[in-house]
Design goal:
alpha+beta; 13 helices; 4-stranded mixed β-sheet; Beta Polymerase, domain 2; Nucleoside Triphosphate Pyrophosphohydrolase
Length: 398
């Protein structure tokens, strides 16, 4: 029997302009010296995000931390102190701070807290497997620094407030949880443009919990003036309430990516897998194409309505590209630059890759220009149609 441990930790960054990353020097009880990031085991009933925030405060003395994104899950096996086989998962978050006065916790063997450039942090890290998470944090910071596009204080408030309020509601339900997904998890959230997407899962059927959580999210959205959505799955993995196969596909895809680019922020990690994905994405892509074409044909008067129309059309275009990428690699990196690279290798010359490159630049600049958004959205339906046709042709190799 393998003993299981769950931990969480954080890469703490100072911002997007010339960022520095926090690393801790530690001397273990056996005399081994190492350089690590703050992390530790989840306490009973504690979600990964809460654990990561707590560990940074306990091990580095930092407060005033802000949620910025999710970096993924590390998994490894080892032999425990009593020779029992063990396995551990570590959920890594990206947090930001304006306070660089860190104090290493001497009681836990930490000797110094130091702020490194991303390159130096990767060089000094003691565990090779952790370097991938440092690289991901650096990639997010570089992407935002090109704008520059500061990390969102609205996203931080929404995620942490919902997590704190939802946790006691979920405590009586050991299989239920809430996770953050989409750009709010990938680190490329853009204020005034991106939605904050959440999923809830493992909820008991015929229970008031769904309505309570939905009310919590709606109230937070109103208070913060932010677009926040909650998509709910019951304990069979089916959407509540039913909303058609396309919505089921998107929800089930998100559930499968918990630990990749979907982060648990309250409650427990899923204990069961969602229903199998449809092997052919054609129907879902066709639905997305229809949505884009229909929205483009609908009149919109006034700047808010025009902006919302363009935003939604471009959002479903990204969804189409991500569905296509997942047919190539179920663990694909779904940030736009990486997404373009995957599709370009397998479908060179596809219209959607050119559109997404331009859209990525638009978002990286803060998505300020409505005319540009509408021009990009005007190419969406044709780009999705081209992608559908290419998926029925042999893919390029290389």
């Amino acid at each position: 029997m393998t003993r299981l441990y769950a931990s969480a930790g954080a890469v703490v960054a100072t911002g997007v302009t010339d960022p520095r990353l926090l690393m801790l020097d530690q001397t273990r009880a056996n005399g081994e010296r190492q350089t690590v990031a703050p992390k530790g085991r989840l306490e009973p009933g504690e979600a990964p995000l809460a654990a990561a925030l707590r560990e940074v405060t306990e091990e580095a003395g930092l407060t005033g931390l802000r949620y910025a994104g999710y970096l993924g899950r590390e998994s490894y096996q080892f032999t425990d102190h009593d020779a029992v086989p063990a396995a551990k998962t570590v959920d890594w978050f990206l947090l930001t701070t304006d306070n660089t006065t860190a104090t290493a916790a001497a009681g836990e063997g930490f000797t110094e807290a130091r702020w490194h450039t991303p390159a130096d942090a990767a060089t000094t890290a003691s565990h090779p497997g952790f370097v991938a998470f440092l690289d991901r944090a650096a990639t997010i910071a570089r992407w935002r620094g090109n704008g520059p596009l500061p990390f969102s204080t609205v996203l931080d408030a929404a995620v942490r407030d919902i997590a704190a309020a939802a946790q006691p509601l979920l405590d009586p339900h050991p299989t239920a949880g809430i996770a953050v997904c989409g750009s709010a998890a990938r680190g490329d959230f853009v204020d005034g443009w991106s939605d904050i997407d959440l999923i809830a899962y493992g909820l008991p059927r015929n229970d008031d919990l769904t309505a309570t959580l939905t009310g919590l999210v709606t109230g937070t959205a109103t208070r913060l003036g932010a677009p926040i959505s909650l998509h709910v799955a019951d304990d069979t993995g089916r959407r509540v309430p039913p909303a058609g196969p396309l919505h089921d596909t998107k929800l089930q895809t998100a559930l499968r990516r918990i630990g990749v680019d979907v982060a648990v922020i309250a409650g427990a990690a899923p204990t069961t897998q969602p229903p199998p994905a449809e092997p052919d994405p054609h129907a879902a892509l066709t639905d997305l194409h229809t949505f884009a074409a229909d929205r483009a044909a609908q009149p919109a008067s006034g700047i808010p309505a025009r902006r919302d129309r363009a935003r939604r059309i471009l959002s479903v275009t990204c969804s189409a590209a991500r569905l296509a990428a997942l047919t190539i690699d179920e663990q694909a990196d779904l940030r736009l630059p990486a997404l373009v690279d995957v599709l370009d290798r397998h479908h060179p010359g596809a219209r959607i890759t050119h559109l997404l490159r331009d859209y990525d630049a638009f978002r990286r600049g803060g998505a300020p220009d409505l005319d540009t958004a509408e021009q990009l959205a005007g190419h969406a339906a044709a780009a999705i149609d081209d992608l559908i046709r290419r998926l029925h042709q042999p893919a390029a190799t290389g």
